[in-house]
Design brief:
By secondary structure, the protein is mainly alpha-helical. It is 76% helix and 0% strand. It has a single domain (2-186), classed as Orthogonal Bundle (Hypothetical protein af1432). The protein has helices at residues 2-18, 27-47, 51-60, 63-67, 75-89, 94-105, 118-133, 135-145, 150-167, 170-186. The longest helix has 21 residues, at 27-47. It is globular, with a radius of gyration of 16 Å.
Length: 187
């Protein structure tokens, strides 16, 4: 049953990524969503996090802003609502739905909140890792999506990387340290 739910939700999220209304372009699927899922699954044992909750939360963590650009600024608030709609539609258990929602609500580096669960901490670290490992997606956001000039975009990307770095737990920093240092050197 869970594999069916994951597959159905994956189809919905990927379709939303491919939609003309998605301001991030379809590449957000391959350059952000999938890497966050991979990182979350990889980190789940380190955080003693439920891999099922972490995978679903990673799949849905940016869905609200992908689905509707008006939800971008507060996608950590709208994301849990959108996740609940989908999970409820497919009959996912209520207690597990709450765990997915909680992880999504605490994933943003630009919004400081206390993690209330291992799954939330795991997702936040997986998301930050993907920013550090996929700098071209941040460049796209700065220069294409936000329409920034060279200096402004460089400053924005560097600040985003630094916020992401600060969000990482020490042992996770060790995993991506070389990527982080290379990105900062380049910028």
């Amino acid at each position: 049953m869970i594999e069916t739910i994951k597959n159905r939700i994956e189809e919905i999220v990927e379709q939303a990524c491919a939609a003309d209304t998605n301001i991030f372009g379809h590449d957000i699927w391959t350059h952000h969503i999938l890497p966050v899922i991979q990182n979350a699954k990889r980190l789940a044992p380190r955080f003693d996090a439920d891999p099922e909750i972490v995978e679903l939360a990673a799949l849905l963590h940016d869905y609200a802003s992908i689905k509707d650009k008006a939800l971008y600024e507060d996608h950590h608030v709208h994301g849990p609502i959108e996740a609940e709609k989908l999970l409820k539609r497919f009959g996912y258990p209520g207690k597990k739905t709450e765990a997915v929602k909680d992880a999504i609500a605490t994933h943003r580096a630009s919004v400081r909140v206390e993690y209330r669960s291992a799954e939330g901490a795991c997702l936040a670290n997986a998301d930050a890792m993907s920013h550090i490992e996929h700098v071209p997606s941040l460049l796209y956001l700065a220069y294409i999506h936000h329409g920034m000039g060279i200096d402004e975009g460089k400053t924005w990307v560097k600040a985003k990387l630094q916020r992401s770095w600060q969000k990482l737990r020490k042992d996770v920093q060790d995993i991506v340290r070389s990527n982080y240092e290379a990105a900062l050197k380049l910028l």
